């Protein structure tokens, strides 16, 4: 049976190599830790239907390679993304320092309106921490990002990160800040009837004339 949903959102998981992006995606989709995770080559894909604020939303998630040599390949997947998890490793200062570059790519290549949540992953390795919660919070605030620390190993805050991002997109649709009808918004209506409900009456009449109904 085909899945039914109100909206489809295109999501990205971005950040430097080794931050646990594939493990976050796997934990969210499969609800378990991915033991034998190698560096992603190019792009991996996963999807899941979730319930957010009374709406059924299908998240179509593209997990991009963090290595520099794949950067030109992965950049082509940014176009038309509605949301992104921007991931760094709390035990690696280097991955934190490169966040600005990743964020610039997302806002330039996907959309200035892309909803981004900053994820400090590997929260379970707190004793090896190189980046404090406070400084990451400050970075998030300065760049107008939401922020959570996550653990792909234990599952802590993984679901919440994706749902928080999806909830923010829905709120922006409701407020009119995001328009699913706009090309490249990264948002699609789940079925034609819902799209018709959202169309102005004149547009509906036009549609009927065009299809002869």
UniProtKB/TrEMBL annotation:
It holds the Pfam family Ras. Coiled coil: none annotated. Its cofactor is Mg(2+). It is a lipid-anchor. GO terms for cellular component: cytosol; early endosome membrane; insulin-responsive compartment; perinuclear region of cytoplasm; plasma membrane; recycling endosome. Its main location: membrane. Keywords: Endosome, GTP-binding, Hydrolase, Lipoprotein, Magnesium, Membrane, Metal-binding, Methylation, Nucleotide-binding, Prenylation, Protein transport, Transport. SUPFAM superfamilies: P-loop containing nucleoside triphosphate hydrolases. It is found in: Cell membrane; Early endosome membrane. It comes from the Eukaryota. GO terms for molecular function: G protein activity; GTP binding; metal ion binding. It catalyses: GTP + H2O = GDP + phosphate + H(+). PROSITE patterns: RAB (PS51419), RAS (PS51421), RHO (PS51420). Belongs to the small GTPase superfamily. Rab family. This is Ras-related protein Rab-4. It comes from Vombatus ursinus (Common wombat). The lineage of its organism: Eukaryota, Metazoa, Chordata, Craniata, Vertebrata.
């Amino acid at each position: 049976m085909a899945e039914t949903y109100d909206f489809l959102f295109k999501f990205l998981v971005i950040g430097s190599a080794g931050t646990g992006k594939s493990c976050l995606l796997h934990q969210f989709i499969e609800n378990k830790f991915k033991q034998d995770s190698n560096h992603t080559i190019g792009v991996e894909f996963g999807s899941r239907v979730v319930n957010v604020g009374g709406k059924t939303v299908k998240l179509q998630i593209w997990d991009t390679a963090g290595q520099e040599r794949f950067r030109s390949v992965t950049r082509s997947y940014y176009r038309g993304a509605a949301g992104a998890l921007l991931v760094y490793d709390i035990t690696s200062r280097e991955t934190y320092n490169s966040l600005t570059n990743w964020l610039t790519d997302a806002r330039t290549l996907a959309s200035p309106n892309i909803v981004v949540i900053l994820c400090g992953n590997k929260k379970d390795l707190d004793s090896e921490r190189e980046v404090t919660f406070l400084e990451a919070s400050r970075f998030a605030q300065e760049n107008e990002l939401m922020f959570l620390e996550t653990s792909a190993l234990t599952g802590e805050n993984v679901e919440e990160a994706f749902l928080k991002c999806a909830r923010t997109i829905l709120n922006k649709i409701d407020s009119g800040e995001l328009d699913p009808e706009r090309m490249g918004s990264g948002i699609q209506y789940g079925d034609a009837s819902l799209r018709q409900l959202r169309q102005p009456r004149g547009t509906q009449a036009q549609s009927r004339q065009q299809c002869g109904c």
